[in-house]
Amino acid sequence: MSALAEIYTIPQEHLDFRDTIRQIAQERVAPRAAEIDEKAEYPHDLRTLLAEQDILGLPFELEHGGTGTGTMMLNMAVEEIAPASSSTSSGSGAHRPDGRSSAESAWRTRT
Question: 98: burial class by Cβ within 10 Å (0-12, 13-18, 19+)?
């Protein structure tokens, strides 16, 4: 394997987590996509599900309650959720380029 290929190899645990996210998107999010768009309401129960599966903690370090997997894993998650429901995926991937959410940035400013 070339050095370049090693740099861009996605860790197996990322691929496994991506598969889990894909399954959640297909089984729990996609069946409700039309309803979510029709009602124009954010699906808070799906946000809870994503939080329980650590999907909302992807871009944050462990010491801040995240998974420590970084923005690459977050982008993989958004890519899996978006085809099922872009509304739901936008809520799971809202972050600044440095990986911080608006809420985390506000919290850091106050402390």
Answer: exposed
